[in-house]
Design a protein that fits this description.
five-stranded parallel sheet, globular, 233 residues, 11 helices, alpha/beta
């Protein structure tokens, strides 16, 4: 029987694929008038909280997780393409993608990974572009922040106008994941070890937000970065 850690790592590999796809879609191919900033960090660091703080200050936010999931929702072109290539075994009766099944496939078959990239990359790119164009029409001088957990794994950080790294001590991150009921301790630890460490992320970060303590202290850091971005437009 496979350990929980192995199962989690397989699921991570598929989710990482979706994030990697998303990280190839940035501003390198399209030019937008507003700064588009990536927010990244390890699991449990609080990236979503930081993104929402930016939104509170007036930035537009994009959640890469949500975007990647939307392109494979039941009835979408992405789901149809995966169904055609990989068959119904990877979907439930309602047309939802079985991520555990697909994760096992991706984990053991590099060819399947490349196939998924070729199928989903254009769809995610289009979704990202549509959002940025929408934001441009609304407020061309706005700041846009894009939450991408596995930006380092995607290797495309330079295609953003800047990168914000969100950090927190490992014990804090594990506690958050366990307390949220998402994983037990071993699963949370496996998720963390499947990702690169903050030392690697720091190599391409333009700003670092310490989110390991008081929320108001984190918010002060976010406000300072947001104000710098606004003043630089």
């Amino acid at each position: 029987m496979q350990s929980a850690g192995c199962r989690v790592q397989r699921i991570c590999s598929f989710i990482a694929l979706l994030y990697t796809l998303h990280s190839t879609l940035c501003t390198g191919a399209e030019v937008f008038p507003m700064p588009v900033i990536a927010i990244t960090g390890g699991i449990g660091s609080g990236k979503s909280s930081v993104r929402k703080m930016f939104e509170e200050f007036g930035a537009y936010g994009i959640d890469a997780d949500e975007l990647a999931r939307k392109v494979v929702e039941p009835g979408t072109e992405g789901a149809g393409k995966l169904l055609e290539v990989f068959g119904p075994d990877f979907f439930d009766d309602e047309g939802n993608l079985d991520r555990r099944q697909m994760a096992r496939k991706v984990f053991g078959d590099p060819g399947a990974r490349r196939t998924i990239e070729s199928l989903l990359h254009p769809l995610i790119r289009s979704a990202e572009k549509d959002l940025l164009e929408e934001f441009t029409q609304r407020t061309p001088d706005a700041v846009v922040v894009v939450e991408i957990p596995l930006l380092a794994e995607g290797g495309r950080s330079k295609e953003y106008d800047g990168v914000i790294l969100v950090t927190a001590p490992e014990d804090v991150r594990v506690s958050r994941l366990v307390e949220a009921g998402k994983y037990d301790y071993d699963e949370a630890a496996a998720r963390m070890t499947s990702q690169v460490d903050d030392g690697e992320r720091e190599k391409f970060a333009d700003w670092t937000v310490d989110n390991g303590g008081d929320r108001e202290e984190t918010k002060k850091q976010v406000k300072k970065i947001y104000q710098a971005l606004v003043s630089s437009r």
